From TrEMBL:
Residues of the Plastocyanin-like domain: 31-144, 158-310, 435-548
Keywords: Apoplast, Copper, Lignin degradation, Metal-binding, Oxidoreductase, Repeat, Secreted, Signal
Annotated source species: Dendrobium thyrsiflorum
Xref: Pfam families: Cu-oxidase, Cu-oxidase_2, Cu-oxidase_3
Name under which the protein is recorded: Laccase
InterPro entries: Cu-oxidase-like_N (IPR011707), Cu-oxidase_2nd (IPR001117), Cu-oxidase_C (IPR011706), Cu-oxidase_fam (IPR045087), Cu_oxidase_Cu_BS (IPR002355), Cupredoxin (IPR008972), CuRO_1_LCC (IPR034288), CuRO_2_LCC (IPR034285)
Residues making up the signal peptide according to the UniProt record: 1-22
GO annotation, cellular component aspect: apoplast
Entry EC no(s): 1.10.3.2
Entry note: cofactor: Binds 4 Cu cations per monomer.
Classification lineage: Eukaryota, Viridiplantae, Streptophyta, Embryophyta, Tracheophyta
Coiled coil: none
GO BP terms, alphabetized: lignin catabolic process
Length: 566
Protein backbone atom coordinates (compact mmCIF):
# COMPACT_ATOMS: atom_id res chain seq x y z
CA UNK A 1 0.00 0.00 0.00
CA UNK A 2 1.20 3.56 0.48
CA UNK A 3 3.96 2.87 2.97
CA UNK A 4 6.36 1.90 0.20
CA UNK A 5 9.66 2.01 2.09
CA UNK A 6 8.26 -0.04 4.95
CA UNK A 7 6.87 -2.66 2.58
CA UNK A 8 10.10 -2.84 0.59
CA UNK A 9 11.96 -3.61 3.80
CA UNK A 10 9.35 -6.22 4.66
CA UNK A 11 9.77 -7.86 1.25
CA UNK A 12 13.56 -8.04 1.64
CA UNK A 13 13.24 -9.45 5.17
CA UNK A 14 10.71 -12.02 4.04
CA UNK A 15 12.82 -13.10 1.08
CA UNK A 16 15.87 -13.52 3.27
CA UNK A 17 13.91 -15.58 5.77
CA UNK A 18 13.56 -12.95 8.51
CA UNK A 19 9.73 -12.83 8.38
CA UNK A 20 9.16 -12.75 12.15
CA UNK A 21 5.50 -12.90 13.13
CA UNK A 22 4.56 -14.23 9.67
CA UNK A 23 2.40 -17.34 9.46
CA UNK A 24 1.53 -20.03 6.93
CA UNK A 25 -2.19 -19.78 6.22
CA UNK A 26 -3.64 -23.02 4.85
CA UNK A 27 -7.01 -23.68 3.24
CA UNK A 28 -8.58 -26.54 1.31
CA UNK A 29 -11.05 -25.55 -1.41
CA UNK A 30 -13.35 -28.30 -2.65
CA UNK A 31 -15.04 -27.11 -5.82
CA UNK A 32 -18.30 -28.95 -6.48
CA UNK A 33 -21.87 -28.50 -7.61
CA UNK A 34 -24.50 -27.76 -4.98
CA UNK A 35 -28.21 -26.93 -5.02
CA UNK A 36 -29.37 -23.59 -3.63
CA UNK A 37 -32.77 -21.89 -3.65
CA UNK A 38 -33.15 -18.31 -4.86
CA UNK A 39 -36.08 -16.38 -6.36
CA UNK A 40 -38.54 -19.24 -5.67
CA UNK A 41 -36.46 -21.82 -7.56
CA UNK A 42 -33.89 -24.50 -6.82
CA UNK A 43 -30.78 -24.27 -8.93
CA UNK A 44 -27.53 -26.19 -9.27
CA UNK A 45 -24.47 -23.95 -9.01
CA UNK A 46 -20.72 -24.47 -8.72
CA UNK A 47 -19.33 -23.42 -5.34
CA UNK A 48 -16.40 -23.86 -2.96
CA UNK A 49 -16.80 -25.96 0.19
CA UNK A 50 -20.55 -26.01 -0.29
CA UNK A 51 -20.80 -22.25 0.33
CA UNK A 52 -22.14 -19.41 -1.80
CA UNK A 53 -20.25 -17.10 -1.68
CA UNK A 54 -17.17 -19.14 -0.84
CA UNK A 55 -15.03 -18.98 2.30
CA UNK A 56 -13.22 -15.84 3.36
CA UNK A 57 -9.43 -16.05 3.49
CA UNK A 58 -7.90 -13.98 6.30
CA UNK A 59 -4.19 -13.27 6.51
CA UNK A 60 -1.74 -10.63 7.71
CA UNK A 61 0.74 -8.76 5.58
CA UNK A 62 3.86 -10.89 5.40
CA UNK A 63 2.05 -14.24 5.64
CA UNK A 64 2.43 -17.14 3.22
CA UNK A 65 -0.66 -18.85 1.84
CA UNK A 66 -1.21 -22.39 0.63
CA UNK A 67 -4.65 -23.11 -0.82
CA UNK A 68 -5.20 -26.68 -1.94
CA UNK A 69 -7.91 -26.72 -4.63
CA UNK A 70 -9.66 -30.04 -5.27
CA UNK A 71 -11.90 -30.04 -8.33
CA UNK A 72 -14.97 -32.20 -7.71
CA UNK A 73 -17.08 -30.22 -10.21
CA UNK A 74 -17.83 -31.29 -13.79
CA UNK A 75 -15.96 -28.25 -15.14
CA UNK A 76 -12.34 -27.30 -15.61
CA UNK A 77 -11.39 -24.76 -12.94
CA UNK A 78 -8.69 -22.27 -11.98
CA UNK A 79 -8.69 -19.76 -9.13
CA UNK A 80 -7.33 -16.20 -9.44
CA UNK A 81 -6.23 -14.31 -6.33
CA UNK A 82 -7.41 -10.95 -7.56
CA UNK A 83 -4.91 -8.19 -6.77
CA UNK A 84 -2.17 -10.37 -5.28
CA UNK A 85 1.14 -9.39 -6.89
CA UNK A 86 2.45 -12.98 -7.07
CA UNK A 87 6.06 -11.82 -6.99
CA UNK A 88 8.19 -14.87 -7.80
CA UNK A 89 5.04 -17.03 -7.74
CA UNK A 90 3.52 -16.27 -11.18
CA UNK A 91 2.44 -19.92 -11.53
CA UNK A 92 -0.14 -19.24 -8.79
CA UNK A 93 -1.87 -16.28 -10.48
CA UNK A 94 -4.64 -18.42 -11.93
CA UNK A 95 -5.95 -17.13 -15.30
CA UNK A 96 -6.65 -20.09 -17.57
CA UNK A 97 -4.06 -20.60 -20.35
CA UNK A 98 -2.21 -17.45 -19.26
CA UNK A 99 -0.29 -18.67 -16.20
CA UNK A 100 -1.63 -22.21 -15.94
CA UNK A 101 -3.78 -24.86 -17.54
CA UNK A 102 -7.07 -25.78 -15.89
CA UNK A 103 -7.44 -28.10 -12.93
CA UNK A 104 -9.46 -30.80 -14.63
CA UNK A 105 -12.33 -32.64 -12.88
CA UNK A 106 -10.96 -35.09 -10.35
CA UNK A 107 -7.58 -33.33 -10.09
CA UNK A 108 -6.07 -30.83 -7.67
CA UNK A 109 -3.47 -28.07 -7.43
CA UNK A 110 -2.02 -26.15 -4.49
CA UNK A 111 -1.63 -22.40 -4.95
CA UNK A 112 1.32 -21.10 -2.92
CA UNK A 113 2.12 -17.42 -2.61
CA UNK A 114 3.09 -14.65 -0.20
CA UNK A 115 1.29 -11.44 0.66
CA UNK A 116 4.09 -8.89 0.84
CA UNK A 117 3.54 -5.14 0.64
CA UNK A 118 -0.24 -5.37 0.53
CA UNK A 119 -2.91 -4.60 3.12
CA UNK A 120 -6.64 -4.26 2.76
CA UNK A 121 -9.41 -6.02 0.90
CA UNK A 122 -8.89 -8.26 -2.10
CA UNK A 123 -10.82 -11.29 -3.30
CA UNK A 124 -10.53 -14.57 -5.16
CA UNK A 125 -12.61 -16.02 -7.98
CA UNK A 126 -12.73 -18.65 -10.70
CA UNK A 127 -10.91 -17.63 -13.89
CA UNK A 128 -12.44 -20.12 -16.32
CA UNK A 129 -15.60 -19.55 -18.33
CA UNK A 130 -18.28 -17.72 -16.31
CA UNK A 131 -17.89 -19.86 -13.20
CA UNK A 132 -16.95 -16.83 -11.13
CA UNK A 133 -20.67 -15.99 -11.09
CA UNK A 134 -20.80 -18.22 -8.00
CA UNK A 135 -17.18 -19.25 -7.34
CA UNK A 136 -15.79 -16.29 -5.40
CA UNK A 137 -14.99 -15.01 -1.93
CA UNK A 138 -13.13 -12.36 0.05
CA UNK A 139 -9.37 -12.25 0.69
CA UNK A 140 -8.65 -9.97 3.65
CA UNK A 141 -5.10 -8.85 4.44
CA UNK A 142 -4.73 -7.19 7.83
CA UNK A 143 -1.64 -5.22 8.91
CA UNK A 144 1.43 -7.25 9.84
CA UNK A 145 1.40 -8.60 13.38
CA UNK A 146 3.56 -6.36 15.50
CA UNK A 147 3.60 -3.76 12.70
CA UNK A 148 2.20 -0.28 12.27
CA UNK A 149 -1.47 -1.23 12.30
CA UNK A 150 -4.21 0.63 10.44
CA UNK A 151 -3.53 4.27 9.49
CA UNK A 152 -6.95 5.13 10.95
CA UNK A 153 -8.58 4.40 14.34
CA UNK A 154 -9.17 0.68 14.71
CA UNK A 155 -12.83 -0.06 13.95
CA UNK A 156 -15.06 -1.73 16.50
CA UNK A 157 -15.98 -4.51 14.06
CA UNK A 158 -15.82 -5.36 10.35
CA UNK A 159 -18.35 -6.53 7.78
CA UNK A 160 -17.68 -7.87 4.29
CA UNK A 161 -20.11 -6.85 1.54
CA UNK A 162 -19.81 -8.98 -1.62
CA UNK A 163 -21.93 -7.59 -4.46
CA UNK A 164 -22.90 -10.12 -7.10
CA UNK A 165 -25.34 -11.18 -9.78
CA UNK A 166 -27.80 -14.05 -10.02
CA UNK A 167 -29.20 -15.85 -13.04
CA UNK A 168 -32.10 -18.30 -12.86
CA UNK A 169 -30.67 -20.11 -15.86
CA UNK A 170 -27.40 -22.04 -15.95
CA UNK A 171 -24.64 -19.48 -16.60
CA UNK A 172 -22.42 -21.91 -18.52
CA UNK A 173 -25.34 -22.67 -20.82
CA UNK A 174 -25.98 -18.95 -21.29
CA UNK A 175 -22.36 -18.38 -22.23
CA UNK A 176 -22.37 -21.27 -24.69
CA UNK A 177 -25.52 -19.87 -26.30
CA UNK A 178 -23.98 -16.40 -26.59
CA UNK A 179 -20.83 -17.78 -28.17
CA UNK A 180 -22.81 -19.98 -30.58
CA UNK A 181 -24.91 -17.05 -31.78
CA UNK A 182 -22.17 -14.43 -31.72
CA UNK A 183 -24.36 -12.28 -29.50
CA UNK A 184 -24.25 -10.79 -26.03
CA UNK A 185 -24.57 -12.52 -22.68
CA UNK A 186 -28.02 -12.38 -21.03
CA UNK A 187 -28.58 -9.82 -18.29
CA UNK A 188 -28.96 -11.12 -14.74
CA UNK A 189 -32.27 -11.80 -13.00
CA UNK A 190 -31.17 -10.29 -9.69
CA UNK A 191 -28.32 -8.72 -7.81
CA UNK A 192 -27.06 -10.07 -4.51
CA UNK A 193 -25.35 -8.97 -1.31
CA UNK A 194 -23.33 -11.84 0.13
CA UNK A 195 -25.22 -14.23 -2.12
CA UNK A 196 -28.65 -13.01 -1.01
CA UNK A 197 -30.94 -10.95 -3.25
CA UNK A 198 -32.78 -9.17 -0.43
CA UNK A 199 -36.46 -8.86 0.37
CA UNK A 200 -37.40 -6.63 -2.58
CA UNK A 201 -37.31 -9.77 -4.75
CA UNK A 202 -39.86 -12.57 -4.75
CA UNK A 203 -39.43 -15.34 -2.17
CA UNK A 204 -36.43 -13.56 -0.65
CA UNK A 205 -37.49 -12.47 2.85
CA UNK A 206 -35.23 -15.18 4.26
CA UNK A 207 -32.49 -14.29 1.80
CA UNK A 208 -31.67 -10.82 3.13
CA UNK A 209 -28.27 -10.16 4.64
CA UNK A 210 -28.25 -8.31 7.96
CA UNK A 211 -25.59 -6.22 9.71
CA UNK A 212 -26.20 -5.32 13.36
CA UNK A 213 -24.53 -2.20 14.77
CA UNK A 214 -24.32 -0.33 18.05
CA UNK A 215 -24.92 3.39 18.13
CA UNK A 216 -21.73 5.39 18.49
CA UNK A 217 -19.45 2.63 17.18
CA UNK A 218 -17.37 2.68 13.98
CA UNK A 219 -17.35 -0.26 11.56
CA UNK A 220 -15.11 -1.12 8.64
CA UNK A 221 -17.06 -2.23 5.56
CA UNK A 222 -15.05 -4.27 3.05
CA UNK A 223 -17.02 -3.83 -0.18
CA UNK A 224 -16.24 -6.06 -3.17
CA UNK A 225 -17.84 -6.03 -6.61
CA UNK A 226 -17.85 -9.71 -7.58
CA UNK A 227 -20.43 -9.30 -10.37
CA UNK A 228 -19.78 -10.67 -13.83
CA UNK A 229 -21.01 -7.72 -15.84
CA UNK A 230 -22.43 -4.93 -13.65
CA UNK A 231 -21.03 -1.84 -12.01
CA UNK A 232 -22.88 -0.65 -8.92
CA UNK A 233 -23.99 2.37 -6.97
CA UNK A 234 -24.03 1.42 -3.26
CA UNK A 235 -25.69 3.48 -0.52
CA UNK A 236 -26.86 3.14 3.07
CA UNK A 237 -29.91 5.15 4.07
CA UNK A 238 -29.16 8.18 6.27
CA UNK A 239 -25.45 7.33 6.61
CA UNK A 240 -22.27 8.67 5.09
CA UNK A 241 -19.20 6.53 4.53
CA UNK A 242 -15.52 7.44 4.75
CA UNK A 243 -13.44 5.66 2.11
CA UNK A 244 -10.02 4.69 3.51
CA UNK A 245 -8.88 2.10 0.97
CA UNK A 246 -9.32 0.90 -2.60
CA UNK A 247 -7.94 -2.30 -4.15
CA UNK A 248 -5.81 -2.91 -1.03
CA UNK A 249 -4.23 0.54 -1.15
CA UNK A 250 -4.87 3.14 1.54
CA UNK A 251 -6.53 6.35 0.40
CA UNK A 252 -6.86 9.85 1.74
CA UNK A 253 -10.10 9.68 3.79
CA UNK A 254 -12.93 10.55 1.41
CA UNK A 255 -16.42 11.25 2.75
CA UNK A 256 -19.32 10.24 0.52
CA UNK A 257 -22.92 9.09 0.69
CA UNK A 258 -22.60 6.88 -2.39
CA UNK A 259 -19.94 4.43 -3.56
CA UNK A 260 -19.43 3.53 -7.21
CA UNK A 261 -17.67 0.23 -7.73
CA UNK A 262 -16.82 -1.71 -10.88
CA UNK A 263 -16.42 -5.49 -11.24
CA UNK A 264 -13.08 -6.50 -9.74
CA UNK A 265 -12.73 -3.44 -7.52
CA UNK A 266 -12.79 -3.28 -3.73
CA UNK A 267 -13.47 -0.39 -1.36
CA UNK A 268 -12.71 -0.14 2.36
CA UNK A 269 -15.03 2.35 4.04
CA UNK A 270 -15.68 3.37 7.63
CA UNK A 271 -19.30 3.48 8.75
CA UNK A 272 -20.04 5.65 11.76
CA UNK A 273 -23.21 4.32 13.39
CA UNK A 274 -24.47 7.75 14.43
CA UNK A 275 -28.05 7.70 13.12
CA UNK A 276 -31.15 7.31 15.31
CA UNK A 277 -31.65 3.63 16.22
CA UNK A 278 -33.77 2.05 13.49
CA UNK A 279 -33.57 -0.34 10.55
CA UNK A 280 -31.93 0.97 7.39
CA UNK A 281 -31.50 -0.55 3.96
CA UNK A 282 -28.10 -0.74 2.34
CA UNK A 283 -28.88 -0.96 -1.37
CA UNK A 284 -27.10 -1.48 -4.67
CA UNK A 285 -28.28 -0.80 -8.21
CA UNK A 286 -26.55 -0.94 -11.56
CA UNK A 287 -24.53 1.94 -12.91
CA UNK A 288 -25.42 1.61 -16.60
CA UNK A 289 -23.23 3.93 -18.66
CA UNK A 290 -24.44 2.80 -22.10
CA UNK A 291 -27.93 3.52 -23.46
CA UNK A 292 -30.31 0.63 -22.57
CA UNK A 293 -31.38 0.41 -26.22
CA UNK A 294 -27.80 -0.55 -27.05
CA UNK A 295 -26.79 -2.37 -23.87
CA UNK A 296 -29.72 -3.69 -21.80
CA UNK A 297 -29.12 -3.98 -18.06
CA UNK A 298 -30.68 -5.42 -14.92
CA UNK A 299 -32.68 -2.56 -13.37
CA UNK A 300 -33.51 -4.32 -10.09
CA UNK A 301 -32.29 -3.44 -6.59
CA UNK A 302 -30.56 -5.65 -4.06
CA UNK A 303 -30.77 -4.76 -0.37
CA UNK A 304 -29.39 -5.78 2.99
CA UNK A 305 -30.44 -4.36 6.35
CA UNK A 306 -28.41 -2.27 8.77
CA UNK A 307 -30.05 -2.78 12.14
CA UNK A 308 -29.25 -0.87 15.30
CA UNK A 309 -29.31 -2.89 18.49
CA UNK A 310 -32.49 -2.39 20.51
CA UNK A 311 -34.33 -0.97 17.50
CA UNK A 312 -37.79 -2.45 16.85
CA UNK A 313 -37.89 -5.18 14.19
CA UNK A 314 -38.94 -4.16 10.70
CA UNK A 315 -42.22 -5.38 9.23
CA UNK A 316 -44.38 -4.93 6.16
CA UNK A 317 -46.03 -1.96 7.85
CA UNK A 318 -42.70 -0.56 9.06
CA UNK A 319 -40.00 -1.56 6.55
CA UNK A 320 -36.36 -0.43 6.77
CA UNK A 321 -35.62 3.09 5.58
CA UNK A 322 -34.64 3.13 1.90
CA UNK A 323 -31.79 5.32 0.60
CA UNK A 324 -32.31 7.74 -2.26
CA UNK A 325 -30.35 6.15 -5.10
CA UNK A 326 -28.78 7.81 -8.16
CA UNK A 327 -30.25 7.35 -11.61
CA UNK A 328 -28.92 4.27 -13.40
CA UNK A 329 -27.05 6.44 -15.91
CA UNK A 330 -25.71 9.02 -13.43
CA UNK A 331 -22.24 9.27 -14.94
CA UNK A 332 -21.37 12.55 -13.13
CA UNK A 333 -21.88 10.85 -9.76
CA UNK A 334 -19.86 7.82 -10.86
CA UNK A 335 -17.03 9.96 -12.19
CA UNK A 336 -16.98 12.16 -9.10
CA UNK A 337 -16.34 9.09 -6.97
CA UNK A 338 -13.86 7.39 -9.29
CA UNK A 339 -11.79 10.53 -9.90
CA UNK A 340 -11.62 11.95 -6.36
CA UNK A 341 -9.72 9.17 -4.63
CA UNK A 342 -6.05 9.79 -3.88
CA UNK A 343 -3.33 7.85 -2.08
CA UNK A 344 -2.95 8.45 1.64
CA UNK A 345 0.72 9.44 1.28
CA UNK A 346 2.99 10.48 -1.61
CA UNK A 347 3.89 7.35 -3.55
CA UNK A 348 6.42 6.08 -6.05
CA UNK A 349 4.66 6.98 -9.30
CA UNK A 350 7.26 6.83 -12.13
CA UNK A 351 8.28 10.27 -13.38
CA UNK A 352 10.55 9.15 -16.23
CA UNK A 353 8.84 6.84 -18.71
CA UNK A 354 10.53 4.17 -20.85
CA UNK A 355 7.48 2.83 -22.69
CA UNK A 356 4.58 4.96 -23.89
CA UNK A 357 1.47 3.09 -25.02
CA UNK A 358 -1.85 4.35 -26.39
CA UNK A 359 -4.56 1.69 -26.18
CA UNK A 360 -7.87 2.23 -27.96
CA UNK A 361 -10.33 -0.41 -26.82
CA UNK A 362 -13.98 -1.33 -27.03
CA UNK A 363 -16.47 -3.46 -28.91
CA UNK A 364 -16.38 -4.54 -32.53
CA UNK A 365 -17.32 -7.27 -34.97
CA UNK A 366 -15.55 -10.26 -36.43
CA UNK A 367 -16.58 -12.86 -39.05
CA UNK A 368 -18.47 -15.84 -37.62
CA UNK A 369 -16.27 -18.85 -36.93
CA UNK A 370 -16.99 -22.52 -37.63
CA UNK A 371 -17.87 -23.15 -33.96
CA UNK A 372 -20.65 -20.54 -34.03
CA UNK A 373 -23.47 -22.42 -35.79
CA UNK A 374 -26.15 -19.85 -34.93
CA UNK A 375 -24.09 -16.81 -35.94
CA UNK A 376 -25.38 -14.66 -38.78
CA UNK A 377 -22.44 -13.29 -40.78
CA UNK A 378 -20.60 -11.38 -38.06
CA UNK A 379 -20.16 -11.98 -34.35
CA UNK A 380 -19.81 -9.53 -31.51
CA UNK A 381 -16.18 -8.98 -30.61
CA UNK A 382 -13.98 -6.74 -28.48
CA UNK A 383 -10.41 -5.58 -28.89
CA UNK A 384 -7.45 -3.51 -27.73
CA UNK A 385 -5.71 -1.65 -30.54
CA UNK A 386 -7.90 -3.63 -32.93
CA UNK A 387 -6.54 -6.99 -31.69
CA UNK A 388 -9.18 -9.32 -30.27
CA UNK A 389 -7.31 -11.55 -27.84
CA UNK A 390 -7.38 -15.30 -28.50
CA UNK A 391 -6.51 -17.61 -25.61
CA UNK A 392 -4.08 -20.45 -26.31
CA UNK A 393 -5.47 -23.98 -26.20
CA UNK A 394 -2.51 -26.33 -25.76
CA UNK A 395 -0.14 -24.73 -23.23
CA UNK A 396 -0.17 -21.73 -20.92
CA UNK A 397 1.57 -18.56 -22.07
CA UNK A 398 3.72 -18.54 -18.93
CA UNK A 399 4.98 -22.05 -19.60
CA UNK A 400 5.67 -21.13 -23.22
CA UNK A 401 7.62 -18.12 -21.96
CA UNK A 402 9.57 -20.15 -19.39
CA UNK A 403 10.40 -23.05 -21.75
CA UNK A 404 10.83 -20.90 -24.89
CA UNK A 405 8.04 -22.74 -26.71
CA UNK A 406 7.35 -21.08 -30.04
CA UNK A 407 4.05 -20.63 -31.79
CA UNK A 408 1.95 -19.98 -28.68
CA UNK A 409 2.00 -16.18 -28.87
CA UNK A 410 3.73 -13.40 -30.76
CA UNK A 411 5.56 -10.39 -29.35
CA UNK A 412 4.13 -7.73 -31.63
CA UNK A 413 1.25 -6.16 -29.73
CA UNK A 414 1.14 -2.61 -31.14
CA UNK A 415 1.94 0.43 -28.99
CA UNK A 416 -0.75 2.41 -30.77
CA UNK A 417 -3.87 1.75 -32.87
CA UNK A 418 -3.02 0.98 -36.48
CA UNK A 419 -5.47 3.68 -37.56
CA UNK A 420 -6.22 6.89 -35.64
CA UNK A 421 -9.80 8.14 -35.70
CA UNK A 422 -12.30 10.15 -33.67
CA UNK A 423 -12.42 7.44 -31.00
CA UNK A 424 -15.22 8.73 -28.76
CA UNK A 425 -17.51 10.05 -31.50
CA UNK A 426 -20.51 7.74 -32.17
CA UNK A 427 -20.26 8.63 -35.86
CA UNK A 428 -17.41 6.12 -36.11
CA UNK A 429 -20.13 3.50 -36.49
CA UNK A 430 -20.84 4.89 -39.94
CA UNK A 431 -17.46 3.55 -41.07
CA UNK A 432 -17.66 -0.23 -41.14
CA UNK A 433 -13.92 -0.76 -41.16
CA UNK A 434 -13.66 0.68 -37.63
CA UNK A 435 -15.94 -2.10 -36.38
CA UNK A 436 -13.86 -4.99 -37.69
CA UNK A 437 -11.25 -6.57 -35.41
CA UNK A 438 -8.39 -8.99 -35.97
CA UNK A 439 -7.83 -12.00 -33.74
CA UNK A 440 -4.44 -12.73 -32.24
CA UNK A 441 -2.46 -13.85 -29.19
CA UNK A 442 -0.04 -10.97 -28.89
CA UNK A 443 2.05 -9.66 -26.01
CA UNK A 444 3.94 -6.46 -25.33
CA UNK A 445 7.53 -7.21 -24.34
CA UNK A 446 8.83 -5.15 -21.37
CA UNK A 447 12.33 -5.05 -19.94
CA UNK A 448 12.60 -5.74 -16.25
CA UNK A 449 12.22 -2.58 -14.15
CA UNK A 450 11.17 -0.45 -17.12
CA UNK A 451 8.52 2.19 -16.55
CA UNK A 452 5.29 2.22 -18.52
CA UNK A 453 2.64 4.83 -19.24
CA UNK A 454 -0.61 3.65 -20.81
CA UNK A 455 -3.26 5.95 -22.22
CA UNK A 456 -6.46 3.90 -22.11
CA UNK A 457 -8.89 5.35 -24.66
CA UNK A 458 -12.47 4.13 -24.62
CA UNK A 459 -14.10 4.06 -28.05
CA UNK A 460 -17.69 4.51 -29.19
CA UNK A 461 -17.61 1.66 -31.70
CA UNK A 462 -20.99 -0.10 -31.42
CA UNK A 463 -21.52 1.49 -27.99
CA UNK A 464 -19.68 3.85 -25.66
CA UNK A 465 -19.48 2.27 -22.23
CA UNK A 466 -17.50 2.50 -19.01
CA UNK A 467 -15.09 -0.45 -19.03
CA UNK A 468 -13.26 -1.79 -15.95
CA UNK A 469 -9.74 -2.92 -16.91
CA UNK A 470 -7.77 -5.19 -14.56
CA UNK A 471 -4.00 -5.72 -14.67
CA UNK A 472 -2.64 -8.93 -13.15
CA UNK A 473 0.61 -8.89 -11.19
CA UNK A 474 0.68 -5.15 -10.47
CA UNK A 475 -0.91 -2.13 -8.95
CA UNK A 476 -0.79 0.94 -11.16
CA UNK A 477 -1.08 4.65 -10.54
CA UNK A 478 -4.08 6.48 -12.01
CA UNK A 479 -2.53 9.85 -12.85
CA UNK A 480 -5.48 11.34 -14.75
CA UNK A 481 -8.82 10.56 -16.36
CA UNK A 482 -11.42 12.43 -18.36
CA UNK A 483 -14.01 12.39 -21.14
CA UNK A 484 -13.77 12.57 -24.92
CA UNK A 485 -10.58 11.92 -26.84
CA UNK A 486 -7.28 12.07 -24.98
CA UNK A 487 -5.42 15.29 -25.74
CA UNK A 488 -1.98 15.30 -24.20
CA UNK A 489 -1.50 19.05 -23.86
CA UNK A 490 -4.72 19.39 -21.90
CA UNK A 491 -4.45 16.11 -20.01
CA UNK A 492 -0.97 16.67 -18.55
CA UNK A 493 -2.34 19.68 -16.67
CA UNK A 494 -4.48 17.22 -14.69
CA UNK A 495 -1.69 14.72 -13.95
CA UNK A 496 -1.37 13.85 -10.29
CA UNK A 497 2.28 12.82 -9.92
CA UNK A 498 2.36 13.17 -6.14
CA UNK A 499 -0.29 10.91 -4.60
CA UNK A 500 -2.39 9.34 -7.37
CA UNK A 501 -4.68 6.51 -6.36
CA UNK A 502 -3.28 3.00 -6.71
CA UNK A 503 -5.51 0.42 -8.33
CA UNK A 504 -5.42 -3.01 -9.90
CA UNK A 505 -8.72 -2.35 -11.71
CA UNK A 506 -9.75 0.96 -13.26
CA UNK A 507 -13.15 1.94 -14.58
CA UNK A 508 -12.26 3.93 -17.70
CA UNK A 509 -14.90 6.66 -18.17
CA UNK A 510 -17.61 6.11 -20.76
CA UNK A 511 -16.50 7.76 -24.00
CA UNK A 512 -13.35 8.86 -22.20
CA UNK A 513 -9.82 7.98 -21.18
CA UNK A 514 -7.48 7.30 -18.29
CA UNK A 515 -3.70 7.48 -17.93
CA UNK A 516 -1.97 4.90 -15.76
CA UNK A 517 1.68 4.27 -14.91
CA UNK A 518 3.55 1.34 -13.40
CA UNK A 519 7.04 -0.12 -13.06
CA UNK A 520 7.53 -3.54 -14.70
CA UNK A 521 9.45 -5.11 -11.81
CA UNK A 522 7.56 -8.41 -11.65
CA UNK A 523 8.80 -10.91 -14.28
CA UNK A 524 6.39 -13.25 -16.03
CA UNK A 525 3.31 -13.13 -18.24
CA UNK A 526 0.58 -10.81 -17.00
CA UNK A 527 -2.78 -10.27 -18.68
CA UNK A 528 -4.69 -7.00 -18.76
CA UNK A 529 -8.36 -7.48 -19.50
CA UNK A 530 -11.84 -6.09 -19.18
CA UNK A 531 -13.48 -7.32 -15.98
CA UNK A 532 -16.89 -7.40 -17.62
CA UNK A 533 -16.83 -11.13 -18.18
CA UNK A 534 -18.88 -10.94 -21.34
CA UNK A 535 -16.29 -8.61 -22.87
CA UNK A 536 -13.31 -10.70 -21.77
CA UNK A 537 -14.79 -13.69 -23.59
CA UNK A 538 -15.14 -11.44 -26.65
CA UNK A 539 -11.41 -10.67 -26.64
CA UNK A 540 -11.00 -7.41 -24.72
CA UNK A 541 -7.54 -8.27 -23.37
CA UNK A 542 -3.81 -8.15 -24.02
CA UNK A 543 -0.76 -9.42 -22.14
CA UNK A 544 2.67 -8.26 -21.05
CA UNK A 545 5.80 -10.39 -21.19
CA UNK A 546 8.07 -8.95 -18.50
CA UNK A 547 11.67 -10.10 -18.72
CA UNK A 548 13.77 -11.47 -15.89
CA UNK A 549 15.89 -9.24 -13.69
CA UNK A 550 19.62 -9.58 -12.97
CA UNK A 551 19.36 -11.83 -9.88
CA UNK A 552 17.70 -15.14 -8.91
CA UNK A 553 15.26 -13.11 -6.80
CA UNK A 554 14.04 -11.39 -9.98
CA UNK A 555 13.90 -14.45 -12.23
CA UNK A 556 10.82 -16.58 -12.89
CA UNK A 557 11.35 -19.87 -11.01
CA UNK A 558 10.40 -23.29 -12.42
CA UNK A 559 6.75 -24.38 -12.13
CA UNK A 560 5.81 -26.35 -9.00
CA UNK A 561 5.67 -30.18 -9.21
CA UNK A 562 1.85 -30.31 -9.20
CA UNK A 563 1.47 -27.66 -11.91
CA UNK A 564 -1.59 -28.65 -14.02
CA UNK A 565 -0.90 -30.02 -17.48
CA UNK A 566 -3.08 -29.27 -20.46
Amino acid sequence: MARSAFFLACFIFAFLGFSAEAELVKHTFKVSNIVVRRLCKNKTITAVNGKYPGPTIKAHEGDSLAIHVINESPYNITIHWHGIFQRMTPWADGPNFITQCSIQPGNSYTYRFNVIGQEGTLWWHAHVSVLRATVYGALIIRPRLGGLGYPFPKPYKEATILLGEWWNADVVGLQNAALASGGAFNISDAFTINGRPGDLYRCSNKHTYKVEVEQGKTYLLRIINAALNSQFFFKIANHRLTVVGADSSYTTPFSTDVITIAPGQTIDALLHANAPPANYYMAAIAYASAPPSVSPFDNTTTVATLTYKQSPPSSSSSPPIMPSLPAFNDTPTAHHFYSNLTALHPNSVPLQIDQHMFIAFGLGLTPCSVNQPLCQGRALSASMNNISFSFPTTVSMLEAHFRSIRGVYTKDFPNRPLVAYDFSNPSVNNVGSFQLTDKGTKVKRLKFNSTVEMVLQNTAVLAAENHPLHLHGYNFYVVAQGFGNYKKKEAVKKFNLVNPQERNTIAVPVGGWAVIRFRADNPGIWIMHCHLDGHLSLGLAMAFEVGNGPTPATTVPPPPPDYPQC
